[in-house]
Design goal:
412 residues; 20 strands; single chain; six-stranded mixed barrel; 2 domains
C-alpha cells in the first residue's frame, strides 16, 4: 500500500513538472538540463520533432541564421527539402534539453506535396501563431545516431522525464590525458556568465607557463552577450547573439581588416568558419580525435553538445575577439551597471564572441609561438578604413588546435 501510494505521488509530481516546462522552478532547483524519453508504449506516428537538415552545408547554416532571427522555422517532412525536417520519435528514443532555452517560433511548412498531406508536429497550422519549441539533442535508439533540432512543448509533455542529466565533472575534463600533438585552449566560465572566465593553454600535453612567474598561464576573458543591456538577465547559449555556447571549437584561422574602427586593428580568431563543429555529425565520425581532447564518456554530456546544437539552430561567426566589440562593431551601448561590472577587466559584453579585452595581442603571440598562426597572418592595416578588405587566413595547425569552453561545476 505504502509503495503504491509513493508511486502515485511521484507520478503526480512528474505531471505537475511537465505542465510547467517553461518555468521549472521547484522541479529543476539545481539545473534546467533534463532528459526525456519516449515510453515503450508510445506511438511513433504522433510523436515528432524538427531536426536540422543538411548539417554539413555552409549555405544551410547561413540560411538558418537568417530565418531564425526572423522568428521563422522552415521545415519539410523530407530531409533536404527545407532547413528542418520532421522525424518520428520511436519508443526508447530520448532528447536532452535545457528548459531555459525555450523559443517562440512560427513553423512554416515547405510547399511540397508530402508536407501538405501530413499534420504538423507542433499541432499548429502554418503561420497562425508562434509555437513554444525547445532546442534538443536527439538520440535514436535504433541506430545510436545523434541529431540536433527543436521539439514542441506539447510533444515534450508526452515524453517521460528520466533522472537529472549526467554531466562529467569539470576537473575530469581539464585534467584528462590529451594528445601531445594538439594545442588546446580551455575556457572555464561561471555558469551565470556575469563575471570573466579563465583561459588557460595546454600544448605538448602540458600547461603553458607564464614567462614571468613560471606559474600556469591564466588570462581572464568574457563569454557573455549584451542581453539587451540587462547585465543580470539569465544566461542563454543556443539563441543567436546570446552567450557563448559550451563545447569544442576548431581554430580555423584568423580574420583581419573589414572596417575602420579600432576594433579592426587586431586579428580575430575564427572558431567556426560557418562549418559544423567537430562533434556535430549524426555518427561518431571523429570519435578518435575527440577522445584525445576530452574523455570519451563526456561526449554525450549536454555541455559538449551545446555548441553543435547552437550551430544547428543558426549560430555562426563566433570569434575570440579584442576590446569593445559591442559598442564599436554593433553600435550597442551597454548600461552603466554592466560597464562598471566589467571595467576593471576592460571588457564589454558581445554578441557571443569570446572577448579578451586588451589582451588579444598577448594571446595571438602565444598561438604564433605554438605554430597555430604565422606572424604574417595577424598583420592588420595601421590605418584601416571602411574599404579595408576583410582577409581570412587558415591556421597551419587546422585540425590540431581547439578551444574547449565549459561552465564550472556549481560546487567549484
Amino acid at each position: 500500500m505504502r509503495r503504491a501510494y509513493l508511486n502515485k505521488v511521484v507520478k503526480v509530481i512528474s505531471v505537475l513538472c511537465l505542465s510547467a516546462l517553461s518555468a521549472q522552478i521547484s522541479c529543476a532547483a539545481n539545473s534546467d538540463i533534463r532528459k526525456f524519453c519516449a515510453l515503450p508504449s508510445s506511438s511513433s506516428r504522433s510523436l515528432q520533432l524538427f531536426l536540422a537538415s543538411n548539417i554539413a552545408s555552409q549555405q544551410a547554416a547561413l540560411q538558418r541564421n537568417k530565418t531564425l532571427q526572423q522568428g521563422k522555422m522552415l521545415f519539410s517532412t523530407r530531409e533536404g527539402d527545407a532547413l528542418f525536417h520532421t522525424a518520428r520519435i520511436a519508443p526508447g528514443d530520448c532528447v536532452l534539453v535545457n528548459l531555459e532555452e525555450a523559443m517562440l517560433l512560427v513553423p512554416n511548412a515547405a510547399k511540397d506535396v508530402s508536407s501538405a498531406s501530413q499534420p504538423q508536429p507542433s499541432g499548429e497550422q502554418e503561420g497562425v501563431r508562434k509555437v513554444t519549441l525547445f532546442p534538443a539533442v536527439f538520440w535514436a535508439q535504433r541506430n545510436g545516431a545523434k541529431h540536433y533540432g527543436l521539439i514542441a512543448e506539447k510533444t515534450l509533455q508526452r515524453l517521460r522525464r528520466v533522472d537529472k542529466a549526467r554531466e562529467t565533472a569539470t576537473d575530469v575534463i581539464v585534467n584528462a590525458k590529451t594528445d601531445p600533438d594538439l594545442v588546446l585552449i580551455y575556457i572555464l566560465c561561471p555558469p551565470d556568465r556575469n563575471s570573466p572566465c579563465d583561459l588557460t593553454v595546454k600544448q605538448k600535453g602540458r600547461w603553458l607557463l607564464d614567462k614571468n612567474s613560471s606559474k600556469q598561464f591564466h588570462l581572464p576573458v568574457l563569454a557573455r552577450s549584451t542581453r539587451n543591456g540587462k547585465a543580470n538577465r539569465g544566461t542563454r547559449r543556443v539563441r543567436i547573439n546570446h552567450d557563448t555556447p559550451q563545447g569544442i571549437y576548431t581554430i580555423w584561422g584568423v580574420v583581419t581588416g573589414g572596417g575602420s574602427s579600432s576594433w579592426f586593428q587586431t586579428a580575430r580568431i575564427d572558431l567556426d568558419a560557418a562549418l559544423p563543429p567537430i562533434n556535430a555529425q549524426p555518427y561518431s565520425l571523429n570519435s578518435f580525435l575527440l577522445s584525445r581532447i576530452i574523455p570519451a564518456e563526456a561526449l554525450d554530456d549536454y555541455w559538449v553538445n551545446e555548441w553543435p546544437l547552437a550551430y544547428s539552430l543558426g549560430r555562426i561567426a563566433l570569434r575570440i575577439a579584442p576590446g569593445d566589440f559591442a559598442s564599436e562593431q554593433h553600435k550597442v551601448t551597454s548600461t552603466a551597471s554592466s560597464q562598471a561590472q566589467f571595467s576593471q577587466a576592460q571588457f564589454n559584453p558581445t554578441h557571443g564572441c569570446i572577448n579578451t579585452g586588451e589582451q588579444q595581442g598577448q594571446l595571438l603571440q602565444i598561438l604564433i609561438e605554438a605554430g597555430v598562426f604565422r606572424q604574417e597572418d595577424i598583420v592588420t592595416p595601421d590605418t584601416p578604413d571602411e574599404n579595408s578588405e576583410k582577409r581570412w587566413s587558415v591556421s597551419p595547425k587546422l585540425g590540431k588546435a581547439f578551444v574547449i569552453i565549459k561552465d564550472r561545476d556549481e560546487t567549484d
